[in-house]
Amino acid sequence: MAKAVKDLPEDIQKIVDVNEWDMRTREGIQRFRELKAKSLPSVALDGDLVYESLIPMQEELCGEILRRYDEKNEDS
Amino acid sequence: MESNIKKQRFVYHTEGVCPPEIHFHIQKEDLNEVRFVGGGCPGNAHLVSRLMEGKPLNEVLEHLKGITCRDDTSCPDQLAKAIIAAKSGELDPAPSFQVLTDSSPRNRIGMIGDLAGNSDALEILIHEMRAKEVDVIYCLGNLTGNSSNNKNIIQLIRKEGLIAIQGEGDWRYAHEEPDGGSPYHEHKVRDYLFRLPHVLSFQMGRKMGIAFFGEYIQNLPGFSDFDPFALEMNMVCGLTRFMQDETVFPALEAMIPQFKAQIILFSQIKKWGYRQIGETHFISLGPVSDDNGLSWGLLETRDEKIDFRIINSSLSTGG
Q: Is residue B166 over pLDDT 90?
């Protein structure tokens, strides 16, 4: 798994579940197709394909996770 | 729903009896899907298989052990030996699919797609391919179909020394319960199809090739994503939908460096097609016979370059 995703800060890890799919497997391929991804590596947040062909810098990824977290909590 | 307890498939090579192989599954401690393959008395073998289906191994062994027919053994006795060997770990589980390796390096390969039991077409194409001096002819399934000529196809393949793999239709036919009126040769056809390899590997220059029919192989019991050539099959069948979904080609390109094979042949979609991505060649085989007449594929290597052509036959099966 990419370092930016693996080593997320503890406060971020508390609010997310991280899943990695292995593209060599049928399960990984199925997930890839469900997300309508096209290239590797890809990162989806809450089922939305957010990053394609790149793993973002950790700050950027954390920012996006927090933005979505806040948005969700605002709604509820 | 299928049980979580893994079903293991075994193939036992017999001694002293007519069928050269016994295929069976063990799930938990029960015996399933026994099949005596390649000879013997199909009626009695079928009866043994039905009687033993789903029975605990210990109970089965009591019935099978020590029965003699000839040479101090019998089909039931050989099955008992096979079960004991499987239980003790002497007999390893068989892989979910069988890979045949064509050990001769090839320069010029003639390829035949869906035959569907059309033995007249096969005869014509063999003649044409030989005239074009192919090194070898590969039949990549389906060999058989809803035809009365299935037996002739198999006889031709054997007589002419063609290399054949199983297609999904062949697999179904091989696994069908024979109907009451099945003549003896029907059993022989089914046994032949049953024993066909599922995947063929071959060599052209420095490139390794594989040929397989399609995605039914992924559904065979025990298929693992980490079996040899499973990656190539997963990418062709699952990711790219037989190379028809171009949007995912960037992902395919990223996975290709992990491939063992650089030439990949498949025939499930029954449509001719060719793609080269990097140094990897993907070839979809069309049917032998369609509205345009008869056709076959020619794969050649020259100076390490791969060339693929569809050859339309000048002859037809008539009628």
A: yes
Which residue from A23, A29, A39 is facing B250, i.e. has the nearest CB? Answer: A39
Q: Which of B217, B225, B240, B244 should we substitute to test contact with A (largest number of A Cβ atoms within 10 Å)? A: B225
The structural domain count of chain B equals 2
Q: Which amino acid is at A18?
A: V
Q: Do B234 and A39 touch (CB under 8 A)?
A: no
**Are B150 and B268 in the same domain?**
yes
B319 assigned to some structural domain: no
Confidence of residue B225 (pLDDT cuts 50, 70, 90): very high
CB contact under 8 A, A33 and B239: yes
* Residue B16: strand, helix, or coil: coil
Examine residue B273 and state whether it is found in any structural domain, yes or no.
yes
How far is A30 from chain B, CA to nearest CA, in Å? 7
Residues B58, B129: one domain? no
Tell me which of B38, B69, B88 is where a domain ends. B88
Does residue B73 surpass a pLDDT of 60? yes
Contact residues for A76 (Cβ-Cβ < 8 A; gap 6+): none
Contacts of B83 (CB under 8 A, 6+ apart): B24, B26, B31, B57, B60, B61, B64
Q: What rounded mean pLDDT belongs to chain B? A: 92
User: B75 is in which domain, residue-wise?
Assistant: 7-88
pTM of the model: 0.88
Q: How far apart are CA A45 and CA B128, in angstroms?
A: 57
Q: What is the pLDDT of residue B181?
A: 53
| Shared domain check, B250 and B274 | yes
- For residues B260 and B266, is the Cβ–Cβ distance under 8 A? no
Q: What CATH number does residue B103 fall under? A: 3.60.21.10
B111 within a domain of the structure (yes/no): yes
pLDDT at B2 exceeding the cut of 50: no
* Residue B287 in domain: yes
Residue B179's pLDDT band (cuts 50, 70, 90): low
Which comes out higher in pLDDT, residue B84 or B149?
B84
pLDDT at B147: 84
Instruction: Give how far A39 is from chain B: nearest CA, Å.
Output: 4
**Separation of alpha carbons B132 and B2, rounded Å:** 50
**Same domain for B84 and B193?**
no
